[in-house]
């Protein structure tokens, strides 16, 4: 394969620049699902081949409901990627998750409405299991290395994924709290499910920017931007610490997700 990578980073809001990569080069990967969010940057880091794609495009021109998630994941699979690390900006649904905190996600609740969410649309039926939608091995690495860096990080969290681009109403936000969800955002789904369908390990961190509207704590755009910048720095340091520690052979079942899924 001319172009290839072992690990991929999908950058969320604020994370548009793969400046940690050595000898970066940009490539276009054609997919049957159309264009990826942007050109994919290939490079190396600590001996591993890494691919990077900004989920919203380098100029943040693509809103979350319009991201071509299928094209992004398909392209990474074509490059040979076996592990994905992703970041997602989000609002907190709990007093215990403060702006600047990071959660290593382990569950999601889908509240989207119109996003293509499978590669199996017709001709073949696939019921992939997403009982535990995030890779436990990557999740442990993210938490342990985040702790070693002194980052305020929590192992486990439920992410409510809303359609966007609008934010939640106050009633919706209070309902999500009753569901005991931890954060709310717009990008985890269907990205993590599509990764499971192509048997790629997927680990994701939620970067808390503010409290959602249940808290009635209005914040300014300047305050949110300041937190996003700090969060991006943490995400870069964390991913940089995790990537070289990813083992060659996975110790999870993500790579066998289709074994009993296709009818």
Report what the structure shows.
Helix content is 23%, strand content 24%. Helix 2 packs across helix 5 (221-242). The protein is globular and about 50 Å long. It has a single domain, classed as 3-Layer(aba) Sandwich (Rossmann fold), CATH 3.40.50. Strands 1, 2, 3, 4, 5, 6, 7, 8, 9, 10 and 11 form an 11-stranded mixed beta sheet that branches. It is α/β, with parallel strands linked by helices and 263 residues long.
Notable characteristics:
24% strand, 11-stranded mixed β-sheet, alpha/beta, 11 strands, Rossmann fold, 5 helices, 263 residues
Q: Assign a percent range to the helix content.
A: 10-25%
Domain count? 1
**Main sheet properties:** 11 strands, mixed
Name the structural class: alpha/beta
- CATH-level-4 superfamily name: Nucleoside phosphorylase domain
Question: Unreliable runs, pLDDT <50, ≥5 residues?
Answer: none
* CATH level-1 class: Alpha Beta
| Total number of strands | 11
Relative strand content: 15-25%
If helices are DSSP runs of H or I spanning 4 or more residues, what is the number of helices? 5
What is the subunit organization of this protein? single chain
**And the CATH topology?**
Rossmann fold
* Gross morphology: globular
- The string of secondary-structure elements, in order, is EEEEHEEEHEEHEHEH
**Average of pLDDT:** 94
Please state the second-level CATH architecture. 3-Layer(aba) Sandwich
How far the N terminus sits from the C terminus, by CA atoms, comes to 31 Å
Q: Radius of gyration from the CA trace?
A: 17 Å
